[in-house]
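Fold sample X.
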Amino acid sequence: MSVDLHVLLALLAMMAATYATRIAGFLMPEKLDLTPRLRAALDAIPAAVLVSVIAPSMLATGWRETLASLVAALAATRLPLIGVVAVGVGAVVLLRHL
């Protein structure tokens, strides 16, 4: 299996950004005045990083992956993030076997 160096570097950078936002909340809670709006913004960052990983493959691959992404987007209106990931993976597996 061949891994493109640019893809690997992008994934590592996104992983570091996600980890940094999460660990900052543990290390500096007393130093930050977390309003509800700021807390919501910080909680949205991991999902935004996940979308930035998924969005290119949604449009650059076949119809099965695009349809599975739409199914996952619909699931996101009702399920927590881990449920959306499970539904998306399940949809890709099911559609690839059709």
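Fold sample Y, listed below.
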Amino acid sequence: MKKVTTFAAVLAVIGLTACTTTQKVAVQQPSDTRLSCAELEGEFVKLDTVMEDAQGDRGVNTANVAAAVFFWPAAVGNYMNAKDAEELVEKRRTHLMGIYSEKGCDAAE
């Protein structure tokens, strides 16, 4: 009985650590319209980083392989979580690009 309990605990730990944590972004933030052109460009760089992380979480990585082997629903969850994060990044990028254009930032270069 003790071996079964230990084995179940090990599987639970592996299952919990097999999930990826893709950062989610808010599409709109109250201070967005107050951002300068340089700050908006900085936000675009941050969004690129979040997008790269999300795309990595959708691909083959240690967490996804472990999830697929030990608890396949976690692999599906990782994929869906990363997909949601990518959609939020694109919506935020579109929102910020509107502000960027309204401020004439693209004309300033």
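Sample Y note: The helical segments are 2-17, 37-58, 62-70, 72-102.
Also: Residues 2-107 form one domain.
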